[in-house]
Amino acid sequence: MVELKARVGDHEFLRKKLSALGAEYTGTFQQSDLYFKVPEGRLKLREVENNGTVELIYYERENIAGPKSDDAFILKVQEPEDLKKILKKILTPLIVIEKVREIYQYQGTQIHLDTVKKLGKFIEFERQTADDPKSIEKDQQILEKLMEKLEINPSNLETLSYSDLVET
Question: Is-contact 65 104, C-beta < 8 A?
């Protein structure tokens, strides 16, 4: 996967731009991500309000501005309370990130308009890609073009995850 994240001032402007591009709105979700201390990468337990399941997400990603590669593994869990108890017993919880996420689809790219408690407003792009340098480069260029279409200032690109941003 390739992705990027940027701070934004106004989601309404972006909603209008996405609508003009023909992006498909797929929903708005209240999410809570509990991050754990792990030796490499990042591990979080994501709960989506009124969903009944949780996702255990492990990912490794470069901390650079702009489009970057992201290796992620996602496990959907039907019995969240048992998993939460086990994880809290064997791992050290670091931080909880609460956000409201609007999701859009546009030509193979998933776009998130996030309002993150304590941090503000962001936009994220995620695009599945083949695991070879040419495909990754091509998909990174697609994200850069989408950034231009949505008038996202490159100086607003974020290098860190939400958990890192809250901690700094």
Answer: no
Distance CA(120)–CA(101), nearest Å, equals 12
Contact 45, 158 (CB under 8 A): no
Report the C-alpha gap between 26 and 44 in whole angstroms: 23
The DSSP string of 114-138 is EEETTTEEEEEEEE---SSHHHHHH
Domain around 98: 2-167
165 in Cβ contact with 44 (< 8 Å)? no
Overall number of domains in the chain: 1
For residue range 51-76, list pLDDT tens digits in order.
Answer: 777 899 998 877 777 777 777 889 99
Q: What is the CATH number of the domain that holds 59?
A: 2.40.320.10
CB atoms within 10 A of CB 131: 9
* pLDDT tens string 144-164: 999 999 999 999 999 888 998
pTM of the predicted structure, to 2 decimals: 0.88
DSSP state of 160: S
- Write down the pLDDT at residue 49: 84
Contact 17/144 with Cβ under 8 angstroms?
Answer: no
